[in-house]
Amino acid sequence: MASRVKVATCSLAGCFGCHMSFLDIDERLLDLLELIEFDRSPINDIKTIEGIVDFGFVEGGLCNAENVHLLKHFREHCRVLVSVGECAITGGIPSMRNHHTLKECLYETYIRGVGVENAHIPDDAELPLLLDKVYPLHAVVRVDHYLPGCPPSADAFWHFLTELIAGRDPNLPLQLLRYD
Amino acid sequence: MSQAVTTQTQESVQQILQKHPRDAGELLQILVAVQHAYHWVSEEAVGLIAEHLRVTRAHIRGLVGFYSFLSDSFLGDYVIYLSDNITDRMLGNKEIGKYLCSRLGVKLGRVRSDGRVSVHFTSCTGMCDQGPAALVNGRPVTRLSRERADRMVDLIMARTPVSDWPPELFLVEDNFRRSDVLFRRAFEPGAALKSALLRGGDETLKAIQFEEAVDPASGIAWKRGADETLKELYRSDLRGRGGAGFKAALKWEACRDTPAPERYVVCNADEGEPGTFKDRVMLSSFADMVFEGMTLCGYVVGASQGILYIRQEYWYLKTHLEAVLARRREAGLLGRNLLGSGHAFDIAIHWGAGAYICGMESAMIESIEGRRGKPRKRWPLPVVAGVEKRPTVVNNVETFAAVAMVALKGGAWFAGHGTMHSTGTKLFCVSGDCERPGIYEYPFGVSAREILRDCGGLDAQAVQVSGPSGTTITQQEFDRTLAYEDLTTVGTFMIFGPQRDMFEVVQNFTHFFQHESCGLCTPCRVGTSLLANLVDRVAAGKGSPLDLEEVQRISHLMKTTAHCGLGQSAPNHLVDSLAKFRGDWDKRMMVGGFEPAFDLDASLEEARQLTGRDDDAAHL
User: Fold this and answer.
1) Does B616 touch chain A (CB under 8 A)?
2) Which of B38, B76, B378, B529 has a Cα-to-Cα distance from B230 of 20 to 30 A?
3) Chains A and B: how many Cβ contacts under 8 Å?
């Protein structure tokens, strides 16, 4: 038990769908817990990584300053960083706003939007500022592996993790890369 | 301005349409004519063409979007394209471009507000031995200097039509510096064709001598002449000059032996490989030889239609080429009754519209049929199903010229030159850092060093053989030979002197491929863009060793999985450069770490302005 692999996960500009799909490994979760130990993760609600963990799984792209801080935190504390899912790898659905300027987006939502009262753009210092565009993770930090899919299937997660734990290059077999 | 253009369009687009058959295959030729007439293809013109050819507007817009020299917005009364090959860059084209723009008061790529003029960069225009070069309303201006730019500006300011510009501005030189056995003396039109016919025996001989018609019904002598000519071609062991080196005789025989009611002969004069300009010289000064080679091919394979597919950059040769074709028709060397034989062969000219990929034979065939130039699946080969799914021979301009000489002087004579597996001679397009750039003819097997000595470029640090898709050789490799046994080549020979930064060469080539990828397959479409981004990243001083690994990984992926030769060979120069000129990369590399691809703090600037915040959390 002492040598369980430490894993941390987080979701940035994503929908948590990848995390949900991960949990879909169902009863294999019990087998997995023999092999791994969760550090910071929405699964156990630990907020920061102490020390160094073996694997970091990051879902979602980068849409604001907080995302960037958290991603850098992961990069600094994870031996191996995995970019998980469409949004982390390409920006995904959130990056559809990249066709517009940030101003257009915020005006549409907070100024001109239907039913908006007391129209103003939120400026509370507690809110993380939005980046001009949504970026994929590898634009900001070095990424070691990519786990594609929207979301990656539970089998893909299982295969990927068990391969990583076994010390192999986690190449997905073709059937786990088919989405139709 | 646009209103005036619009009312004009209606009538004269109709005029253009009247000149073309109502055939969807004519679409590209019509669009080229419209673009030349109006400097754009208006939505109104699209409508008229769609109606005339019964094709969809979307299909037409698809072509306008695909070909570089077609435009869906008005480009101005004067349209200037500056050639942007690395050889033009080395001669200062960027500086000339800036100068032109500032004197004309126009932003690069934008039309001046009065609609007078626009200035753009374009891929190599095939004037590398006399650059920096440009095209003004389709006509080439070479050896651009501030002085020549000033003259252009004055003429544009004075609204002088390009047809009234002084001819010396448009002077294009052959710079044929060394001829060997193939291009030593002027070619007598018809001589090769007559030699071929004579191989058939007495009857044909009589027909030619006494101008009697050969009875096409008997056709024995006619057929024998064709068979004997093919045998000569086998004896010559002539290999295609387009770079791949496929044996011409094999190709011809396969085409001849595929049963079909009609066959085609296509001459590939797309010559898009940056640094290549031999086809231009061939077609300027040896057009008869090329057309005769095509006619011989028609004779041997049994085709009655030849097509010269020529790149848009050589539009200025149109009048000349049409005149040569007309003269040959008059002399009975083309037309319905070839040399009184009763057999037909004629040649039509198809214009490209700016797409490197169209040099690839099946993409070219797509383009000939009036579509976007996208390569077809590898099988069936064009010799089985090419133009209109008919057996088609596609050969390079230089190959057809060589064929004429084989017919004239015999296969054994031809095979007596060159090397064991690369017979005959080859034209080399020498450009870059040397004293005498131009065309050099050598027997195959010549060493790079010999060419460098002859052109005065021995102090070179590198030569790019066969263009960006070819091989980069260093000083240590100058004794390698140019032949299929060693360095395969289309003939491009770009020389880089000791003062050059080889990384800039890479950057130029990478962007060339990014622009020219046809978009059909993902490895090439995405790969060329990723490579360009990575190279730019290194150029910006943000490259890490990881980025170089990524370059290698993507290069390997493209070489092994791209659909056609473009994508497969696009990373060649990168792999060569990383192996041979690592120093020029390393001096740009970031020391350690990983740098974000963009400025993090700057990416928050818009949000800072919108919220008026400037606290610590508002910065990265």
Assistant:
1) no
2) B378
3) 58
Is-contact A94 A134, C-beta < 8 A? yes
Q: Measured between alpha carbons, how far is A88 from A70 in angstroms, rounded to an integer?
A: 13
B1 — pLDDT class (breaks 50, 70, 90): very low
Phi, psi of B287 (to 5 degrees): -60, -40
Q: Give φ, ψ of A74 to 5 degrees.
A: -65, -45
Please give the Cα distance from B591 to A57 (Å, whole number): 27
User: What is the length of chain B?
Assistant: 620
- Give the pLDDT mean for B603-616: 93
| Residue B548 to chain A, least CA–CA distance (Å) | 13
Structure tokens, A41: 């993760």
Pairing of strands B462-465, B492-496: antiparallel
Residue B2 has pLDDT above 50, yes or no: no
Q: Which of B602, B612, B620 sits opposite A123 (nearest CB)?
A: B612
pTM of the model: 0.86
Q: What is the mean pLDDT of residues A139-151?
A: 94
Tokens 């015999």, residue located: B410
d(CA B195, CA B119): 50
Residue of B nearest to A123 (CA): B611
Parallel, antiparallel, or unpaired for β B492-496 and B425-432?
parallel
- Please answer yes or no on whether A140 and B613 come within 8 Å at the CB atom: no
Kindly determine whether residue A103 and residue B596, on different chains, have CB atoms separated by under 8 Å: no
Average pLDDT of the residues in B351-375: 96
Q: Which two tokens stand for residue B247?
A: 């044996």
DSSP, residue by residue, B420-469: SSSBSEEEEEEEESSSS-EEEEEETTEEHHHHHHHHT-TT-SEEEETSTT
- CB burial of A18-55 (b: ≥16 within 10 Å; e: otherwise) equals bbebbeebeeeeeebeeebebbbbeeeeeeebeeebbb
Instruction: Provide the percentage of residues in chain B whose pLDDT is more than 70.
Output: 95
Shortest alpha-carbon distance between residue B519 and chain A (Å): 19
Looking at this predicted complex, what is its ipTM?
0.88
* B528 CA to centre of own chain: 19
Split at pLDDT 50, 70, 90, the class of A2 is: low
Cα angle: B364, vertex B368, B373; to 5 degrees: 45
Give the separation between CA B198 and CA B228, rounded to whole angstroms. Answer: 10
Residue in A132, A135, A141 nearest the CB of B606: A132
B610 touches chain A (CB under 8 A): yes
- B268 sits in which H/E element: strand B264-269
